[in-house]
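Final report, section 2: Outcomes. Of the targets proposed, Histidine ammonia-lyase is the one most frequently requested by collaborating groups, and we therefore present its record in full.
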Amino acid sequence: MDMHNVVDGKVVVGKADVSPADVIAVARGNARIEISGDALAEMAGSRARIDALAAEARPVYGVSTGFGALAVRWIERPLRAQLQRSLVRSHAAGMGPQVEREVTRALMFLRLKTLASGRTGVRPLVAETMAAILNAGITPVVREYGSLGCSGDLAPLSHCALTLMGEGLAYGPDGEVRPAGELLGEAGITPVELAEKEGLALINGTDGMLGMLLLAIADLGRLFSTADITAAMSLEALLGTEKVLLPELHAIRPHPGQGASAANMLKVLAGSGLTGHHQDDAPRVQDAYSVRCAPQVAGAGRDTLTHAALVAERELAAAVDNPVVLPDGRVESNGNFHGAPVAYVLDFLAIAAADLGSIAERRTDRLLDKNRSHGLPPFLADDPGLDSGLMIAQYTQAALVSENKRLAVPASVDSIPSSAMQEDHVSMGWSAARKLRQSVDNLARILAVELTASARALEIRVNTGSGPLAPATAAALAAARAAGVGGPGTDRFLSPDLDAAELFVAGGGLVAAVEAVTGPLA
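The predicted structure is given below as tokens.
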């Protein structure tokens, strides 16, 4: 990924576009944030326009009125600081489990990026305080439920804004939850007294759903490469043919992702002595769909990921707020806070993740079934009947696949009107993002089970004198064993093996081991 804004471990926020890598560097890598002088000047200029409007007698939404269905009331100047405080306090109404630290850091950084654009009309002080909080390792407590994905991720962002005010709860650098005011005091950060429009500007954005989309795109990019590797290992263990991966076959159906997945699998299988040698007692003209069509399914997911990345990049370039200060000084209301563009691709990715897991499970089941595995022992057991082998590992995998199918039901097709019918159509993008995170975690586990099965099957082939493994799959097998994924043998406590496989897959260990032989995979 492009790291153009990361300099000496710092992410510079200013006129240059923020990249996906910048967001991940802050969310997961704790990169420090610096606001450019140009951005601070732009913010000061747009703030002057808000101050001018605040002095006028006419009502301006977000500056001198209430919010949502209460925007009909004009608020006198002495009450406007209270208006902003009340907005943040009342909207910090989340419930349920606390969301992950990386999600909160991502959404705060993305809101900071929009503040620094100069389009929101907040004072530079607000952005500088938000940067200071992130740099101090202070993370607001944000709850699972509260956003409808329209008018911004209101409740999640309000919990973050509450921390800027020195109120509510937050995690300290040590991971302990404490009153935010105490944490700010220890870090030498002065809480912000919000002025006109600033409370609204802090909470009116798609930052939560966008942050989770960017994190998911990064994780899925690694998992799609992982799926190509595990599919290749299963093909090899099943004595399948690699001829279906030839580039000329994929050139005549030119979906880019399909071609990339096929090329990955072909690289992984190069030099194998097992592929293409069908057994005499079970002759095959063609392999089963779950093996033969692996590039088509994974490739469709890759193309979906490409589309999602395009949407994410466009949203990253946006300044989402309402109203906004335009470059010519006009302050205009708009509907850019609606999360539909992001919500749709979040749902689309959940569908792709569910199907990729589904085809991986079918390959695992084939490896375990003596009637379809072409000479492998039932359930890859050491002494079938006395030992059960990987029988129940496939049950676990099937349960995860089934859950991912349920999580693939789109959230973005739903809408519940809110704010006395003023906000009568919402995106549910936050909900789409939350379920996608679960889908991604489940997919890593599903692929970990396929890796466990295919690695054991390959080792059995080697132990029984079959042809040599491809150098890349041999490297994958060795790395999996080194990571704690056990091989064939009598039954043992299996959960630790599967946990080790999950960590190995999710952390990118499998891809790294294979790329050490093949060079970079797509």
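Residues 429-463 form the longest helix (35 residues).
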